[in-house]
Specification:
- By secondary structure, the protein is α+β, with helices and mostly antiparallel strands.
- 32% of the residues lie in helices and 28% in strands.
- The protein is built from seven helices and 15 strands.
- It has helices at residues 7-28, 47-63, 95-99, 175-183, 194-202, 216-228, 254-265, and strands at 35-37, 44-46, 68-71, 75-76, 85-93, 106-113, 116-124, 129-134, 139-141, 144-145, 158-161, 187-189, 208-214, 232-236, 247-252.
- The strands form three sheets. It has an eight-stranded mixed beta sheet, with helices on both faces. Strands 12-11-13-15-14 form a five-stranded mixed beta sheet, sandwiched between helices.
- A hairpin with a 3-residue loop joins strand 3 and strand 4.
- The longest helix has 22 residues, at 7-28.
- The protein is globular and about 50 Å long.
Length: 269
Amino acid sequence: MAFSFDLSYLTFVATQAALKAGEILRKGFGTSYQIQLKSGRQNFVTEFDKASEACIISFIKEHFPTHIFLAEESGLSAQVGAETILWIIDPLDGTTNFAHHIPLFSISIAAYYKEECLCGVIFQPLTHELFISEKGKGAYLNGERLSVSTTDRIENALIGAGFPYDVKDHPTLCIEQLAQLTQLGATLRNLGSASLALAYVAAGKLDGFWMNNLYIWDWAAGQLLIQEAQGKITYYDRQARQLTSTTSLLATNSPLHEPLLKYLTHPSI
């Protein structure tokens, strides 16, 4: 598809916004800050979530004043029109880790046009891991092109798995699926940051990532990274197509995708 705008410039602005916000998080990590509880168990927000988000939006607005934003803390800035470029932002994915001084979190920024991701940036400011993808141009970590792993057996796989915060609506916390994966021999890791886990799948550090009830800002940038790194991603149990609805997600390399999807969607098999 040909675009009437400079795609590389979108990617550049997204990257610079992530770097600027990353400096805020890097300086704030491990310091004292106020922590507020959002809905759900262990679901926090800090002043650094808000400062990072404000920094990202302000920077992008300087370059694209007519663009629209959907950010985790501030929500949708305006109605999305047919020709709108929508920026989807998670300013601090892994707030619970951040609040407990655990150095696993990330910033996620993606630009969408007509429900298609144009570019995505995921940045881990403590390790300086900068993941960048641009539609049709590949996925990169600090300038090195990425490709998903070649692991083809579940018993040899390292799988990222997440747990939802809304324990009242999901009291078993996906125990059936987790039990199925462990019985199949997979090694599981919960990083506490969905966007970082998706980036690690794109980089071949994880062989897959699975989680229920993710919001779009959790996976918006990671989706393109996975696709551009030749991985596969499936959304299931998805609610009506709304920007604020949740979905269950599986991202893997090609050999693992179908067998893992079967076990996750039919855990008794």
